[in-house]
Amino acid sequence: MLELTFDQGTLLLRGVSRQSLARLEESAPWVWDPRVGQWRCDALYYRAICDRLNAAGFHWTDRVPAWHAVQWPRLAIHPLRADQRSALDSWWTTQQGCIVMPTGTGKTEVALAIMARSATSTLVVAPVRDLMYQWHRRILSGLGFDAGIIGDNLFQVRPVSATTYDSACIHMDRLGNQFELIVFDECHHLPGEIRRDAARMSAAPRRLGLTATPERADGRHADLDWLIGPTVYHLRIAEARGATLADYDVVRIPVHLSDDEQRRYDECSRTVRQYVAERRKDDPQFTWQSLCGESAAAPAARHALRAWHAKKSIEDRAVEKLRVLEDIFRLHSGEPCLVFAGSNAMARDVSLRFLIPCLLNHCGKHERREVLEGLAAGRYPALVANQVLDEGVDLPEVKVAIVIGGSASTRQAKQRLGRVLRKSGNVRARLYEIVCADTGEEQRSRKRRSSDAYQGTRHRRL
């Protein structure tokens, strides 16, 4: 009699010979473990193994599942729109895969509807603690269930629980067989070298990934097919624009460095160029990565790296950006605004100049909630943030966003745009992008605007 068990994030198969295992090799990469005298593989392959054992006609005992059905105290989920129903139906066909929908189109509502229909033990994995608590609130309000919290120094495991990617990696060796459905919010975070363990060590046969931007710069988004399942539904911003999402304009405003800023910027650029040129005389393959690697031991490389960071700081904190930002605030007086900075230093500059709240990664959850509630209530006319509001966190209704810095990532650009696209009647959203002309920031701006969501960008000066 074959027996399949769960062991610290892996599966153990007992009672099968090497000859018989040949009939199961397609289901998982089995490895013989001489310590226990059994075959072992990642828990991720549980569903495929079950299908293969049944198809091959084996008589076997399944001792993996520790999950069970869940009774929801109440259901208070909003009726799904047509696109949301299509997403749910597409996922339900295989009960594995990713749903890709723009920010503001209600991915969370789709996930709650899937949880309501599944009525089984469920683990929701979020990238940060704020989102973990946000999921707890949404599950409580939509399904009436007081979900467990695993993370932020808490370990409350319940049939339905919320956690972070980091906590899931740490505890999945114990939790991997306790949940039949696992939901990965902002699942583009999952393929990281460590975070993928949250999927590898879980035996959950039902897997749902949610994201607005699955693409990763390192190309590892291809691993989502293996870790969760293929994309089963993809709604693009252009398809939702003006219907599910608000119609919008993107306005790009170029600014220039002051004479003093330009002088310091040119000096830093020369320092970096000269060092790279000298090194390439000896090593034609010398790259930016090589410079970073040498900076730990070579003083000249360290000096060049500091010059590069100083150069980027000048772009981020250009004085002219603050003048244009003031003009935009005057233009939209009385309307709540979001300002996305490219560094913590610039976010603090904006906060001090205009006396508006500043949200950074180290801000506590109570402070963040008070600031967001204040923006919604009109106590604060605007707020500035660096990265912390780029994705996931529910924001009050805002129709004006101003980008004054950021990376070259198209994912970040689409996420920031999505922050102002929740539909409210026929109100048109506006995203301003303030860019230092003739600097490296101009190149980053071109790259992040290569997304189809930024087609039709208008250029103007203030």
Describe the structure concisely for a colleague:
With 462 residues, the protein is α/β, with parallel strands linked by helices. 39% of the residues lie in helices and 19% in strands. It folds into 4 domains: 2-62, 3-Layer(aba) Sandwich (MutS, DNA mismatch repair protein, domain I), CATH 3.40.1170.30; 82-235, P-loop containing nucleotide triphosphate hydrolases (Rossmann fold, 3-Layer(aba) Sandwich); 248-257 and 318-459, P-loop containing nucleotide triphosphate hydrolases (Rossmann fold), CATH 3.40.50; 259-316, no CATH class.
Describe this structure in words.
By secondary structure, the protein is α/β, with parallel strands linked by helices. It has 17 helices and 20 strands. It has helices spanning 18-21, 46-55, 82-94, 107-118, 129-143, 165-175, 197-200, 224-227, 237-240, 259-282, 288-294, 299-316, 319-331, 344-354, 365-377, 410-418, 440-448; strands at residues 2-7, 10-14, 31-33, 38-42, 60-62, 96-100, 122-126, 148-151, 154-155, 160-164, 181-185, 206-211, 231-234, 248-255, 337-340, 358-359, 382-385, 400-403, 429-436, 458-459. It has an 8-stranded mixed beta sheet with strand order 9-8-10-7-11-12-6-13. It has a 7-stranded parallel beta sheet with strand order 16-17-15-18-19-14-20, sandwiched between helices. It is globular. The model has no long low-confidence stretch (mean pLDDT 91).
